[in-house]
Write a structure and sequence with these properties.
heterodimer; A: alpha/beta; 11 helices; B: two-stranded antiparallel sheet; 16 helices; 4 strands
């Protein structure tokens, strides 16, 4: 799978279940061992580094299913995100800055993370990752399992982060959200990138794109090959 | 004034220290011995709490570390004539090193497998204490020489008390400082969710090893103090029952709270003595009371008292301390203290 993420832009990796999206992210952050190929970040090879070393270089991940410290409060969860990459003197200011961007979390700052709604938990997981001021933010299916109205809210947050100039690599199954927030899109199938391009290209060729997302339309691969030739 | 504020008062620790010293002047030898034993178990329980209650590692090697600490002090004194003041820290350091080594397999093992491995280590140590007669004198045990302090021989329980109480307070305050630092936060993060801890830049293998090292250090010092309190070290003290006792202290006291270690040690050291009058029914009543505590206080005695605002809540992430002060240590309705899995 050959992927690239440009600084200050949102790149999305789309694909159905089992196509290797989450595994790709886990390889980037060092949770899964890489058996072949190479991962480079800012001219440095990182595939042999430990997760904490990768985090120290400025790559933070918002895991799938949020994965919060359920017994801790909202504030405690966010502070843990900055434990290793936020100097003590900056901690309070950075926390206040993050809470400004997430007004709903501001209201629930002393609540246990386990008691938050699904949307709030997703916001909290994102806020926690932002506490380390990452150079690259990885988001693993941030809209999975959320109600449509909450999905719109999460998409809005990602759009705001994009407007702030954050570099984001988002893995999604939700095509609508990906098209709304991303600048560049990759489509994966069975561990391989089968389509890629600027998001406008996909908007123009929406039908083809949806067919790919539906999977099982092998004939379309030849269409794509033809399209690539053009 | 609410009771929990009493415990957060800065004068509470010095006042407790003075009160214990005063109590010791007015007790009989039996109660003095019991008080010494409670303080020793506080140190050992803090070690078990660090590894099990804070770092969330199912490790049960503390009884072995305690035995190694006790034998180190006893053997260095009796075989080599080394002063207690040297052998006590040596016991702590040795157990910290052993703890670090025992912790290495913990990087690959989890939960029940880690529990079995550490229990096996405890049983191996017990076997060595029992059968390595050339060194440990086997079932005959080793008599512990009374230390001297500026020419004064500390050979009574009253004299030993002052060493034990100072060491216990120092160890508890040290644990409090460690748990309030980034190390404590890392332990809690690992306990709560190891995957997320990794995602947030925490060097999980390093902190796990550190937790084992610290736990070993505490148990080693506890063992050294135990040797001073009892003045005799024998293998049977460090058998599987001791493993169960340490585990019970943490569970009954309250997992993940420093106050739980203190209360658990107090409760489980006192209970057999309180039940001594019941003779044959002692063990049965001991068991029933333990089951009762677990059933009716699933978060342990400390958790129960925190929920009823008798004890102050223990802050998990101390960067938020200012906010906790603002709300006077009163938790929100839904801000319950967390527990280990």
């Amino acid at each position: 799978m050959r992927l690239g993420v440009e600084k200050g832009r949102v790149t999305a990796l789309l694909g159905g279940n089992g196509c290797g999206k989450s595994s790709t992210l886990k390889c980037v952050v060092g949770m899964l061992g890489v058996t072949g190929g190479s991962i480079r970040f800012e001219d440095e090879t990182i595939e042999n580094l430990k997760p904490h070393q990768i985090f120290a270089r400025g790559i933070a991940m918002v895991p799938q299913h949020r994965e919060l410290f359920a017994g801790m409060t909202t504030a405690e969860n966010i502070l843990i995100g900055g434990m290793t990459r936020c100097p003590k003197r900056e901690r309070k200011g950075r926390l206040a800055g993050i809470l400004e961007h997430f007004p709903r979390l501001q209201d629930r700052v002393k609540s246990r993370a386990g008691n938050l709604s699904g949307g709030e938990q997703q916001m909290l997981a994102t806020a926690r990752a932002l506490m380390s001021e990452p150079k690259l933010l990885l988001m693993d299916e941030p809209t999975a399992g959320l109600a449509p109205v909450v999905i719109d809210e999460i998409a809005q947050i990602v759009a705001e982060l994009k407007a702030r100039g954050e570099t984001i690599f988002i893995v999604e199954q939700n095509v609508r959200v990906a098209l709304r927030v991303a600048d560049y899109v990759y489509v994966a199938r069975q561990g391989r990138v089968v389509m890629q391009g600027a998001v406008d290209e996909f908007r123009d060729d929406h039908q083809l794109f949806l067919e790919y997302m539906g999977q099982g339309k092998d004939a379309l691969i030849s269409q794509h090959a033809h399209r690539s030739h053009r | 004034m609410e009771i929990h504020r009493l415990f957060t008062n800065r004068l509470f620790t010095p006042a407790l220290f003075v009160a214990l010293c005063l109590v010791s002047t007015a007790t009989n030898p039996y109660l003095q011995y019991l008080l010494n034993l409670i303080l020793v178990y506080v140190v050992v329980a803090v070690g078990q709490m660090i590894i099990l209650g804070f770092a969330g590692q199912f490790a049960f090697a503390n009884a072995a570390f305690m035995g190694i600490g006790a034998y180190t002090v006893a053997l260095l004194g009796s075989h080599f004539g080394i002063s207690y003041w040297v052998s006590l820290p040596a016991a702590g350091v040795l157990c910290a090193i052993v703890g670090c080594i025992v912790g290495l397999p913990a990087l690959r093992l989890r939960r029940v497998y880690l529990g079995l491995m550490t229990m096996g280590f405890a049983e191996l140590c017990y076997w060595l204490f029992l059968h390595w007669r050339d060194l440990t004198l086997g079932t005959d045990g080793v008599k512990v020489e009374a230390p001297t302090f500026f020419g004064i021989r500390l050979d009574t329980d009253d004299a030993a008390f002052f060493v034990i109480v100072i060491a216990t307070f120092a160890m508890v305050l040290l644990a409090k400082a460690i748990l309030a630092s980034r190390y404590g936060r890392a332990f809690i993060a690992i306990r709560e969710n190891e995957l997320v801890a990794r995602c947030n830049g925490i060097n999980v293998p390093l902190y796990k090893t550190l937790a084992f090292t610290l736990s070993g250090f505490y148990a080693g010092i506890g063992g050294g103090l135990f040797a001073l309190a009892v003045r005799f070290v024998a293998p049977d003290t460090f058998n599987l029952l001791q493993v169960v006792l340490h585990f019970a202290i943490v569970m009954v006291g309250g997992v993940g709270t420093l106050s739980g270690a203190l209360l658990g040690a107090l409760f489980l050291t006192m209970l057999p003595e309180v039940l001594r009058g019941t003779q044959a029914a002692q063990e049965m009543m001991y068991g029933v009371l333990l089951v009762g505590v677990i059933v009716f206080m699933p978060k342990g005695v400390a958790g129960y008292l925190i929920e009823r605002r008798i004890l102050p809540p223990e802050v998990l992430v101390h960067g938020w301390r200012e906010e906790v002060r603002e709300r006077d240590g009163i938790p929100q309705a839904d801000a319950k203290p967390s527990t280990a899995e």
